[in-house]
Amino acid sequence: MSMERFRDRTAFITGASRGIGKAIAKAFATEGANVFLIDINESALTATLNEFREQGLKAEGALADVSDRKQVNAAVQQALEAFGNIDILVNNAGVIRDNLLFKMTEDDWDTVMNVHLKGSFNCSAEIQKIMVENRYGRIINLSSTSALGNRGQANYSTAKAGLQGFTKTLAIELGKFGVTVNAVAPGFIETDMTKATAERMGIPFEQFLQYGASQTPVGRVGQPEDIANAVLFFAMEESSYVNGQVLYVAGGPKD
Ligand SMILES: NC(=O)c1ccc[n+]([C@@H]2O[C@H](COP(=O)([O-])OP(=O)(O)OC[C@H]3O[C@@H](n4cnc5c(N)ncnc54)[C@H](O)[C@@H]3O)[C@@H](O)[C@H]2O)c1
């Protein structure tokens, strides 16, 4: 049974074909929202859209790379055609290109900056126009505990710290238009992203998960639904006085 807290709202979620983005999209849709999913992974996007529709959820989507402004613009137009409006933007799309600084290539750096920072800029810049006109909106960015520093992630931690500054600045600029901007900073979440990290480190995923749980005060690793829950809090109409905040969802004070 759902309370339909987001009935008549439309949420635009990036990188939503799997992992945390998929869980966020599912949580909004289960609460009655229209959800528009964008991703660069065509087969996963199609599978997720089909899965949602089979569950009776109102889901549409488009293939789009967040780092490409033209593709973002086209996806936003498609979302408007499908649902007539956008109330909520979740900048979730992300990639990792981990390496120690001395082995990190310029391409590793640029790719991570383009997806997280330019991608969030592109989507926010396009969609704020709609929100400002409506005098209503919710933007939620995905940061990370890595923003506080993490070995092998000079690029990713810089981008995730950058997103915190981006969040606070947009909160200041857009607040007077009824648009709040906040960030969720997850700790260790069990997804394909952390699976790839375990592979790169040559550690079996099960062992990596057990180690993550042992380092976390609540004694477990996080699930995508743990992050979706925090995103929905920021997106609620009643959260209108919560603006420019970074909420660590990490089973403890940080990681
Ligand atoms: N998993 C964790 O432990 C963790 C921790 C902290 C923060 N995060 C952040 O949460 C977000 C989601 O992570 P996840 O674990 O679900 O990762 P994931 O790799 O499972 O999913 C990321 C999704 O983003 C899509 N994507 C990648 N580049 C894109 C682009 N240029 N345009 C559009 N879509 C693109 C991918 O295809 C994929 O579907 C990311 O921003 C990540 O940095 C994850």
Descriptive overview:
By secondary structure, the protein is an alpha/beta fold. It folds into two domains: 204 residues, NAD(P)-binding Rossmann-like Domain (Rossmann fold); 34 residues, no CATH class. The protein has eight helices and seven strands. Strands 3-2-1-4-5-6-7 form a seven-stranded parallel β-sheet, with helices on both faces. Helix 1 packs across helix 8, helix 3 packs parallel to helix 4 and helix 4 packs parallel to helix 5. It is globular, with a radius of gyration of 17 Å. It starts with 9 loop residues before the first strand and ends in a 6-residue tail after the last strand. The model has no long low-confidence stretch (mean pLDDT 97). The structure holds nicotinamide-adenine-dinucleotide. Nicotinamide-adenine-dinucleotide binds next to helix 1, strand 2, helix 4 and helix 6.
Please name the CATH topology of the largest domain.
Rossmann fold
CATH class of the largest domain: Alpha Beta
Integer average pLDDT: 97
Order of helices and strands: EHEHEHEHEHEHHHE
With strands numbered from the N-terminus, the spatial order across the biggest sheet is 3-2-1-4-5-6-7
Low-confidence stretches: none
Radius of gyration: 17 Å
Tally of individual domains: 2
CATH superfamily of the largest domain: NAD(P)-binding Rossmann-like Domain
* Second CATH tier, the architecture of the largest domain: 3-Layer(aba) Sandwich
The biggest beta sheet reads: 7 strands, parallel
Shape annotation: globular
